[in-house]
């Protein structure tokens, strides 16, 4: 599937034609087909358009993982608006900063998040469209609309025009290690290129069922979800982390893939050991975090191959991956760079270093962000001659895999030499 002309809205429409009756979303007691997702996302896009939301507008998503959240991601893609998923763990002042910096025109609140939003100052949401996914009996404050009512009141006709692959689809805020959060503009082609990388690295295919544990405000959570839609697979959104529930649902629904960060991975393995354990195919997690004995336990109990990855929001998600057997053979490895990336290991002066020497990882490829939102200075600092400077220090091993060493911001230049804290 090419990324030069395709968009996320095109992706939903295409899958609705290729797999109309296949379930794209499942949950306890229900499911949604690709055809239904296409219809419902068109209804939301039309409703937003009638309420004045235009291509390029930013729409904040403050929501747990849910079917409605997935609908909004793809509805905004069809409309050409930018989704702004916001980290639910941020404090109110940080949320307020992002709402103001992004200049949001609308806000979608998830069912579990909406009660919390009602405690925030009302003037934060003045002058914007506000939609909540709530139970029918939940009273809404003045100025709020219900997600279900929005769906039912508008036609599902497809839009006559849409965004292009270079237009931003998602504005993801990341604070990195210093300063205020910066908004990474990730265009449609970045998400589709990321999907190609994920399918190549983890063998994702249309028979997979993905347990969506990571929140959609995380680049890996959203990227893995989109990649599974790209493959024509099925997704089970998990609103909150509960290892016992995750094991039970995975066993009942035939989950084959998931992404788990520490300590979720260990908790899932422990819960699965108490049975009944699902039989999974692939579990993705962070490289350099999981000990070999835990990886072996996951393979034995769940039947799954573990993949340790390194990624970055600015790079568009996952950059390297190592299989469990590679991690056990070469402890500390971060694996191999994924297919749609070109990479360099450069010193503090921008020159390539020799294999085995430490340098900053530079990346080039179709999944990179286009830049930071309203921050040209930071964008210029992040890119050099078309290469993204990740700020992360790596060493190229003799087998072509990478090993992370440190953060480039800790680099000390002294006497013409580069010195790192670990040295």
Task: Write structural notes for this entry.
The protein has 423 residues and is an alpha/beta fold. Helices cover 32% and strands 27% of the residues. It is built from 13 helices and 24 strands. The protein has helices at residues 8-18, 34-50, 67-79, 92-102, 114-117, 147-152, 188-202, 219-230, 243-253, 264-273, 292-302, 324-329, 376-382, and strands spanning 23-27, 30-33, 58-62, 82-85, 106-109, 129-132, 144-146, 168-174, 182-187, 209-212, 234-237, 257-259, 282-286, 305-312, 317-323, 336-337, 342-346, 358-364, 371-372, 383-384, 387-396, 402-407, 412-414, 417-419. The strands form 6 sheets. A 7-stranded mixed β-sheet has the order 11-10-12-13-14-15-16, sandwiched between helices. Helix 7 packs across helix 8 and helix 10 (264-273) packs across helix 11. Residues 410-423 have low confidence and may be disordered.
Question: Can you describe this structure in just a few lines?
Answer:
The protein is an alpha/beta fold.
The count of DSSP E runs of length 2 or more, i.e. the number of strands, is: 24
Main sheet characteristics: 7 strands, mixed
Task: Give the class from helix and strand content and strand pairing.
Answer: alpha/beta
The residue fraction in helices comes out at 25-40%
Which sequence of strands runs across the widest sheet? 11-10-12-13-14-15-16
């Amino acid at each position: 599937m090419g990324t030069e002309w395709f968009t996320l809205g095109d992706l939903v429409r295409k899958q609705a034609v290729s797999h109309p009756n296949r379930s794209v979303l499942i949950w306890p007691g229900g499911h949604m087909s690709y055809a239904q997702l296409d219809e419902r996302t068109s209804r939301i896009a039309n409703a937003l358009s009638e309420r004045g939301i235009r291509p390029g507008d930013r729409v904040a998503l403050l929501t747990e993982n849910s079917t409605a959240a997935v609908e909004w991601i793809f509805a905004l893609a069809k409309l050409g608006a930018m989704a702004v998923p916001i980290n639910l763990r941020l404090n109110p002042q940080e949320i307020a900063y992002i709402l103001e910096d992004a200049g949001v025109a609308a806000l979608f609140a998830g069912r579990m998040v909406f009660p919390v939003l009602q405690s925030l100052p009302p003037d934060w949401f003045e002058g914007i469209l506000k939609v909540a996914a709530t139970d029918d009996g939940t009273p809404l404050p003045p100025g709020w609309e219900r997600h279900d009512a929005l769906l039912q009141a508008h036609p599902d006709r497809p839009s006559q025009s849409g965004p292009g692959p270079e237009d931003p689809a998602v504005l993801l805020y990341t604070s990195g290690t210093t300063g205020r959060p910066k908004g990474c503009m990730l265009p449609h082609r970045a998400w589709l290129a990321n999907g190609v990388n994920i399918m190549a690295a983890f063998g994702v295919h249309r028979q997979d069922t993905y347990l969506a544990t990571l929140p959609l405000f995380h680049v890996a959570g959203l990227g893995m979800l989109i990649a599974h839609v790209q493959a024509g697979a099925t997704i089970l959104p998990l609103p909150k982390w509960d290892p016992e529930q995750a094991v039970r649902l995975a066993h009942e629904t035939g989950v084959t893939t998931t992404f788990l960060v520490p300590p979720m991975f260990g908790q899932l393995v422990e819960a699965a050991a108490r049975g009944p354990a699902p039989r999974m195919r692939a579990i993705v997690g962070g490289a350099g975090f999981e000990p070999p004995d835990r990886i072996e336990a996951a393979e034995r109990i769940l039947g799954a191959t573990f993949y340790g990855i390194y990624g970055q929001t600015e790079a568009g998600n996952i950059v390297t991956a190592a299989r469990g057997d590679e991690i056990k053979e070469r402890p500390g490895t971060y694996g191999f760079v994924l297919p749609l990336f070109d990479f360099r290991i450069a010193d503090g002066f921008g020159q390539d270093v020799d294999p085995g020497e430490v340098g900053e990882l530079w990346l080039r490829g179709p999944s990179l962000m286009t830049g930071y939102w309203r921050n040209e200075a930071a964008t210029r600092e992040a890119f050099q001659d078309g290469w993204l400077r990740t700020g992360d220090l790596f060493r190229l091993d003799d087998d072509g895999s990478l090993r992370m060493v440190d953060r480039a911001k800790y680099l000390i230049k002294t006497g013409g030499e580069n010195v790192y804290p670990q040295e």
